[in-house]
Amino acid sequence: MSKTNPGRFFEDYRVGDVIRHAVPRTVAEGERALYHALYPARGAIYSSDDFAAACGLDGSPMDDLIAFHTVFGKTVPDVSLNAVANLGYAEGRWLRPVWPGDTLRAESQVIGVKQNSNGTSGTVYVRTRGLNQQDEVVLEYVRWVMVRKRDAASPAPDPVVPDLARVVPAADLVIPEGLDFSDYDFELAGEPHRWGDYAVGEIIDHVDAVTVEEAEHMLATRLWQNTAKVHFDATFREDGRRLIYGGHVISLGRALSFNGLANAQMIVALNGGAHANPCFAGDTVRAWSEVLELAETPAPGIGAIRLRLVAHKGAAGDTTLRGEGGKYAPHVLLDLDYWALIPR
Amino acid sequence: MSKTNPGRFFEDYRVGDVIRHAVPRTVAEGERALYHALYPARGAIYSSDDFAAACGLDGSPMDDLIAFHTVFGKTVPDVSLNAVANLGYAEGRWLRPVWPGDTLRAESQVIGVKQNSNGTSGTVYVRTRGLNQQDEVVLEYVRWVMVRKRDAASPAPDPVVPDLARVVPAADLVIPEGLDFSDYDFELAGEPHRWGDYAVGEIIDHVDAVTVEEAEHMLATRLWQNTAKVHFDATFREDGRRLIYGGHVISLGRALSFNGLANAQMIVALNGGAHANPCFAGDTVRAWSEVLELAETPAPGIGAIRLRLVAHKGAAGDTTLRGEGGKYAPHVLLDLDYWALIPR
Amino acid sequence: MSKTNPGRFFEDYRVGDVIRHAVPRTVAEGERALYHALYPARGAIYSSDDFAAACGLDGSPMDDLIAFHTVFGKTVPDVSLNAVANLGYAEGRWLRPVWPGDTLRAESQVIGVKQNSNGTSGTVYVRTRGLNQQDEVVLEYVRWVMVRKRDAASPAPDPVVPDLARVVPAADLVIPEGLDFSDYDFELAGEPHRWGDYAVGEIIDHVDAVTVEEAEHMLATRLWQNTAKVHFDATFREDGRRLIYGGHVISLGRALSFNGLANAQMIVALNGGAHANPCFAGDTVRAWSEVLELAETPAPGIGAIRLRLVAHKGAAGDTTLRGEGGKYAPHVLLDLDYWALIPR
């Protein structure tokens, strides 16, 4: 019997099961520096201890997406090693900052299973929680993936499809303790635009672009201990190309969105997201955002902005999202729906 | 009105204006490790807390050029986003060490403007200061760039061309507080050569070479939060090539110069510099140095050495600097003039 | 007289000489983060302060191979700059953990020299010790290399060939102070397999693979301050290819072996090793292990497992080691023999 991990198949998930993922990970200044070398991240709270302190925090926390990737990576060996596709995200919330030196681990509860009509695969829904060394939940989100069956002949389980919120309500957003944008320094942050300057429906083309290299996405994906072969092994796919981890595109798009959204400082919720098309080394990635919603929060000087972030490999300025039949246009890589905190 | 940063044009600079640059940045062990992975840096003071302590410092400071790149990067969105060319440096001085955990920000004062005769661009001179979280100046330098005009028809400003020192006088070099080379360990530092072993006019070919990769220069340039599109977006230039940030070549050349100048430990002044020709991925970069000047300092055991550092992509051992008509030879990438501290 | 380091030639080694290598190096969280970005390392003790603390340590030490590479890198300018080949390793032992913030230096004693019959080169044996800032030995190993002679006509020294242990005896393995696997959490560590689950002769194919990029091996090799030109300068070899540092393949293979050997947590001895064939960018590296020996230790809950680690660029699942005439098969890159600690 092999000692290596074959990954789980559709039959291995039972609603209610809790999977405690390996391997816990201490994240610190080194991971931060790498994140800022891998992505053109410039958000002031995640760049400067002093700026963060002026916003009421005990120094600069780890970037919101470092927390996401670290937790996500841990789930891969148990959730998506045999996945055919990553289908969606919902109900994601950042519940408390991750600080340099914190150790993160992850747990996932199976909350839904539904076999496909072809009988060879099915959809698995998990609610994943990231926990720190005090067993406090720092992040939670629902993800669903299509997973191969081990044996097409095995019987289908009773289908359970969870009822998921289309959007995290603004009232459920968790503001980091102490965060205060009353004395926010717009000049140091890089842009003058505040909450009230954005309008629902507004589209911001982020202008900048990055051409992606193999070494970069692999460094990133390994840093998050994501073990999916398809990202690292050029012989794995028939076309000899390494598929770039979808989270790399999320971070790239988000970092590019600084230009026009410099003050949308902290991601606090992930409402949904689709990896519309695969990304490969050599692609030049651009991004645009659409303002979807604006909400007040009870915290001092802090508003919430709900954004659609689209990353694409099309021409500069192309903000087409969908093509014929309502399908994503072929150049669209990512369509992400999230809430961020922004000074009012 | 777009929310993205279009950059400033020539008309936007007025002599006397002070630009407070975004985004402050905390630099620490992570940035140091990346610096040492990106460049073959081996200078003992920047490599070892113990070696630095034996030289009178409170541990190993951040590499001198980390301070430079971090400060420089902040100025790009305000100074050189629409620059046609980076024309020169002068009067650069490192005024105090940057320590792991320090937060750097930058300010630039416009000290000169001069429209070009063609009316479509002009030269802007700025004096940039890098400051730490105590608002102490850690670094200052003058840079001048050629910037496009927004409108060729706009009137030319009165020309102001600052009177810049060709060389920082040795008497103006600032020695880090406590630095003492009296008990300098040449064996651990890697070479026996001291101040008195170098002669003005001496040329040192540094022997080693590095072939540059796209992933490397982009990791570096992002780490310094330099946002110039030309370094990241392969579709930006007509030839489909990403131009390598000139500072990457400075650090590469400086690190290569360890072999022959291992004891020229700390850069304390930047007298001038030219990015003679563009550098692209695939280029194999070599370096040679010329000793320009030697000076005593009042600090214990410490001399100053003024060096020309030339980085090039020519054949091994080629120390040609200029070709026909006195122009830089086409293989020369960088011609840098700096002062370093070296044990006597 | 040139100031650059020409490296030592065969004539420059005398049995008994001790070489004190430059440059001391402080290693910390930044080096760790880079290591985990460069290699798919997931060993829980080196990933999580909390997991390490639960195993009796004062937090997570620096990865065992970070210590090895850092020490090895320092020896290159003095030992292998003019080496024709790295011939072997023996009697390697990790004597105490390296902690973030420690400063490492290295010393090598020449313990053997033997001129080759062709008169143009010879074998040099050195015993290298890595020391921390308290002058405690953290690591020691013997390495022998074939080094060119400066002058074929110079007389051969009396041959001295050290008597080296084929394998470090289990009784000589040094267990880190305090290490205790009594309450080892197999679930968090990633696999259920313990000491008693492995059998001598068992072969584990580690399934995963990584296609190697130029930027990655150069980042790694520079981080260890390894200065061998052949790794960085594409113009150095006639075929225009950069040879990948053998230690990069060691770390890659070791990290890949997580899948099947997740609990073989800490390397404590290096019994031997051969870099069977060169590795180049573009190669897809896989690994398999063979259990060579199992031993008890006096430490609580801790067993020792001796493993052959083979890294190769062959097809998935190919565990051929040798071909015709007993020579290494052409796809084999590395054959390493080491002891690791594993929960019983």
TrEMBL record, chains A, B, C:
CDD domains: FkbR2. This is L-erythro-3-methylmalyl-CoA dehydratase. One of its GO terms (molecular function) is lyase activity. It comes from the Bacteria. SUPFAM superfamilies: Thioesterase/thiol ester dehydrase-isomerase. PANTHER family: BETA-METHYLMALYL-COA DEHYDRATASE, MONOAMINE OXIDASE-RELATED. InterPro entries: HotDog_dom_sf, MC_hydratase, MCH/BMMD, Thiol_ester_hydratase_Rv0216. It comes from Paracoccus alkenifer.
